[in-house]
Design brief:
The chain is built from 9 helices and 6 strands, in the order E-E-H-H-H-H-E-H-H-E-H-E-E-H-H. It has 285 residues and is α+β, with helices and mostly antiparallel strands. The strands form 2 sheets. A 4-stranded antiparallel beta sheet has the order 4-3-6-5, with helices on both faces. It starts with 30 loop residues before the first strand and ends in a 6-residue tail after the last helix.
Length: 285
């Protein structure tokens, strides 16, 4: 009977890809191995550990480090072989290397300009602002008894009018999944229930039950409202990560706009420019 509804603040997921590599440790970068006489550094092992397949995250720390070191040494060995064969001078490889460097610089620039500067205080300030700007929404706490026919529903109402306990009648007669719990539906806001049920529930005073059966696609209901209140906002801990992602996204877009204002971008292929305009008409120079 309930319908899903996203949190009303509408926090969106961050669309920015952060760097996969961890920052090199501060201080001296220790040589941990050599391959063909060339040094392999601790920072490279750190990068390798962050780049492992997710399945390795379940390994104990020492095994994870060993797996990363093995992968790193394999990479170094194959890279030297590729270099010796002249692959490093291949034009297509150089273009790919340029792209990978640009992507790494993009990620590092975003990290140093935005990620590293985003404080817990800024996240808390945004949370307080969102809560203050969101009007409280009423919610009700209700129970119901669901039966198959209007006649059965009217008979239940007669029993309630005669003093029968709502919870016991729900356990005895309700065909809904909440019946064993005395028809308890908990608290819900508008938009969570089917319209006919919602209209009847929100029209009731606290402690009252419907004097006429309420028909929905699920059957016939007798509804009782036990409480009404303003919806409490989500706690800071519940939404802090979402807010952080929103702030990162906003700062990323601002940083990107700053770059677009400073540097001219021209797509020389008309078909690609048309495609870009169709997909992102507001985001191009």
């Amino acid at each position: 009977m309930q319908r899903t509804q996203p949190w009303r603040a509408g926090l969106v997921a961050l669309a920015v890809c952060l760097s996969a590599g961890a920052a090199a440790q501060e201080g001296e970068d220790k040589v941990i191995a050599t391959v063909g006489g060339k040094p392999v550094y601790q920072s490279e092992l750190t990068f390798a550990e962050t780049d492992l397949d997710p399945q390795f995250s379940r390994l104990p720390a020492e095994q994870r480090t060993a797996a990363a070191l093995s992968a790193l040494l394999d990479i170094k060995l194959m890279a030297q072989q590729a270099e010796n064969s002249g692959l490093g001078k291949d034009e297509a490889f150089q273009r790919r290397l340029d792209f990978l460097r640009d992507r790494a610089l993009h990620n590092e620039f975003f990290k140093t300009r935005v990620v590293d500067g985003l404080t817990d205080e800024a996240v808390r300030e945004r949370y307080d602002k969102e809560v203050a700007a969101t009007p409280p929404e009423q919610e009700v706490k209700a129970r119901h008894i669901l039966v198959d026919s209007e006649e059965q529903a009217k008979a239940v109402i007669v029993e309630l009018d005669g003093g029968k306990d709502f919870i016991e009648l729900a356990k005895e007669k309700s065909t809904g999944p909440s019946g064993p719990q005395g028809g308890d539906l908990g608290y819900f806001t508008r938009g969570r229930m089917v319209p006919e049920f919602e209209e009847a529930a929100f029209a009731l005073e606290t402690g009252a039950y419907t004097k006429e059966p309420v028909k929905t696609q699920f059957g016939w209901h007798i509804i009782k409202v036990e409480d009404k209140r303003d919806t409490p906002p989500p706690s800071f801990e519940q939404v802090a990560d979402q807010i952080r992602r929103v702030l990162l996204q906003e700062e990323y877009l601002a940083l990107l706009q700053e770059a677009r204002d400073a540097v001219k971008v021209e797509v020389t292929d008309k078909d690609l420019q048309d495609l870009l305009n169709a997909v992102n008409p507001q985001g191009n120079n």
